[in-house]
């Protein structure tokens, strides 16, 4: 049997890297991610984790060093937040285009300026066009499980793409919860040794990333898009297999609660889904048949899974904790597109952007907003609409 | 140089004929010298620079060794990762070499270079110094000498002195630092051989005149590289065991009276065609200050 520890979200990420037997970690500290690196340092110096930690001088170098170590045949891990993630953004793209499996923990924090260390999803969602597999956890157990799953997904030959796991800074990163760590032998036999599409270690001459013409470059992009399509199945499979060694499966790319008899659906991603679930439970007690659809993976976009659960919905409310300025909430944009591609006859869909810059959205906020949505639709409002509700009640 | 035996290049084995270098480009000369030391057992980590282009267009590649093309600021960081992975995997017969231009080293790559040096990763960093951003079209770098015309100092020439990267690396107290020149390939070869047998971070700054960027005839590449040394403008040395060891080719020029006039080096290069007298005086002072530093730190 596994081990039950009380871990912060940050330490859950560190333990996942340890249990995955990551061999090289290159990282740079940033609030709120720092304890990930500190815990890994401690595990290594105490002789509990057998890995090399490279204390690089920047996030740009963190991912670059991880890339080098991964290309040369080792399993790697790093983690960052916000400004650090933006600083390594060049390498985020580089890694996926080189099809190098690796895992990155993103401990979400909003983006400066002004200085602010509280969470929203702004830093995470900017990666949506990078070719990374992108998962976002709801609690510390899932942060651990998803990180471990990420290694498996990333190294699957049908995928061979890097994978990132998001958790909200502080809400998860610095909050302690019980986390069950599966038995190491079970993880070892499930995850297996490092797999990657090629290794550059001097055993034979190999050139990576040389000058290429448009047609060859297009092929690289096509390869990533095809791998993303494969990843949909791989994520489902890995989640099921993981259940056999851990007793925990989450349902693949999305998790659905109270969906069986739901007329309406509220969609969200990340830790605040917990508050949303509380609000929906309260509303269900009042007779509102609402289901909660939690996005676990936003890349590849769970188009098919969402269509399955949302087909026939009387109304969909999408909560976004990040927006594309001048456009809409990021999950909303993809959700509407994905549904319309499968059936252009859409139900009312509202998009509420909230919780930006770490603004606290409580379960009573979710209760009020969700109820208002359902009541409007029942009164005959059929619009697809988007607004951003600020804490002061301003609708933007 | 005529008295020395040819270097064991293995020219047709590693550095293949048919690259995309300009006429008179010294980069393939340097690679041949490196191949004489490491054969195909080298992994070159190359950021954006002329070499990214010289190696040719996919699916062709003009060098039979491993190459990882990386983002501009990252040669030293990627090489750190490669070196650590090879160490963990017990691979000891392959040399990791970060190969970067002066822009990728002295400017955008400075932080990652300094970081990797301070952490003392086990690889060789070679900065081939053609004293401007040649690949993007001859823009000024911090390694461009005072007075040189570039496309971003197009009329007046650069008004600041060249950044001394080798001296910065000496200040990192790494196991080995050397300066070298494409005009002295036996010297470069000997330095690579020494570096090969040292563990930890090793840095070589290789002076590499560029016919296009410096505006001289392609046949003068080696001559100009040698003039840089003979005028004392480029000083060949090694740093190890805490001391500067002046290389044989530069030894005579410790004595300023043995040096050729700086003007002989300058007048062959179109980049100095607008150079002002005061710039030449400043260049001379800069060179003398470099020699003073050498004298103070010699064994």
UniProtKB/TrEMBL annotation, chain A:
Coiled coil: none annotated. One of its GO terms (biological process) is response to oxidative stress. This is 2-oxoacid oxidoreductase (ferredoxin). Residues 262-365 form the Pyruvate:ferredoxin oxidoreductase core domain. GO terms for molecular function: 2-oxobutyrate synthase activity; pyruvate synthase activity. Its EC number is 1.2.7.11. It comes from Staphylothermus marinus. The lineage of its organism: Archaea, Thermoproteota, Thermoprotei, Desulfurococcales, Desulfurococcaceae. Heterotetramer of one alpha, one beta, one delta and one gamma chain.
Automatic annotation (TrEMBL), chain B:
Its EC number is 1.2.7.11. It catalyses: a 2-oxocarboxylate + 2 oxidized [2Fe-2S]-[ferredoxin] + CoA = an acyl-CoA + 2 reduced [2Fe-2S]-[ferredoxin] + CO2 + H(+). InterPro entries: PorB-like, THDP-binding, TPP_enzyme_TPP-bd. Keywords: Oxidoreductase. One of its GO terms (molecular function) is 2-oxobutyrate synthase activity. Residues 57-205 form the Thiamine pyrophosphate enzyme TPP-binding domain. PANTHER family: 2-OXOACID OXIDOREDUCTASE (FERREDOXIN) (PTHR42897:SF1), PYRUVATE SYNTHASE SUBUNIT PORB (PTHR42897). This is 2-oxoacid oxidoreductase (ferredoxin). It comes from Staphylothermus marinus.
